[in-house]
Amino acid sequence: MAKAWSWYFGENQSVADAAAGAAPAKIDDEWWEKIVKGVPAEVVGAYTAIISFLKIPGGIVPLFVGFALGLAGTLVAMTMLRGLAWSDSDKARQRIARIQIVVALLAFAVWAYAQGGFFALWNVTLGAGDSAQVYTVYQDWVAGVLVVVMGFVLLVSDKITQPK
């Protein structure tokens, strides 16, 4: 079925309905469309390139700056490049845009965590003296769980954006 693309979750429309003179029906997003709409690939690619240049011995600060730039880039990609409006006169579209922007920020953060980056260099010390334990913030199993959970969130994201 031919459809007119929209960057908003659940807002693709049937081209056949419009051609026939009827009001275009909204078409549910397929799984791959949800991922394309929810994860800014341009930011993921840029982050991957930037992090490869910033990996220096003992350099947690440059990696954190790369992560912060990735979050900022995600916000720019979702609002300026894709045209999602945080404040819109249409309350339903505003709700969709806000949820979609938050989902994209979470998806980027989970993806960045799964890559390691500064999270793998970030250590937390619990306790003091001889009983002190040092833990790394990044854990493989946590990354795996977060990726699975985020995948589920992306799959149901268009359902949670629809008005009740």
Write the layout of secondary structure elements.
Elements: E1 3-4, E2 12-14, H1 15-19, E3 26-27, H2 31-38, H3 41-54, H4 60-81, H5 91-115, H6 117-121, E4 123-126, E5 133-136, H7 140-161
Antiparallel strand pairs: 1-2, 2-3, 4-5
Mean pLDDT: 80
Report the major sheet. Answer: 3 strands, antiparallel
Task: Tell me the β content.
Answer: 5-15%
Q: Could you spell the SSE succession in H and E letters?
A: EEHEHHHHHEEH
Helix proportion range? 55-70%
Low-confidence stretches: none
Number of strands: 5
Distance between the termini: 27 Å
The spatial strand order of the largest sheet comes to 1-2-3
Instruction: Note the overall shape.
Output: elongated
- Going by helix content, strand content and strand pairing, the class is mainly alpha
Report Rg.
20 Å
Please indicate the count of domains. Answer: 1
Summed up, the helix count is 7
Features:
mainly alpha, 9% strand, 164 residues, elongated, two-stranded antiparallel ribbon, single chain, three-stranded antiparallel β-sheet
Question: Describe it for me?
Answer:
- It is a single chain.
- The protein is mainly α and 164 residues long.
- The protein has one domain (31-161).
- It is 62% helix and 9% strand.
- The chain has helices at 15-19, 31-38, 41-54, 60-81, 91-115, 117-121, 140-161, and strands spanning 3-4, 12-14, 26-27, 123-126, 133-136.
- The strands form two sheets. Strands 1-2-3 form a three-stranded antiparallel beta sheet. Strands 4-5 form a two-stranded antiparallel sheet.
- A hairpin with a 7-residue loop joins strand 1 (3-4) and strand 2.
- Helix 2 (31-38) packs across helix 7 and helix 5 packs antiparallel against helix 7 (140-161).
- The chain is elongated.
- The two termini are 27 Å apart.
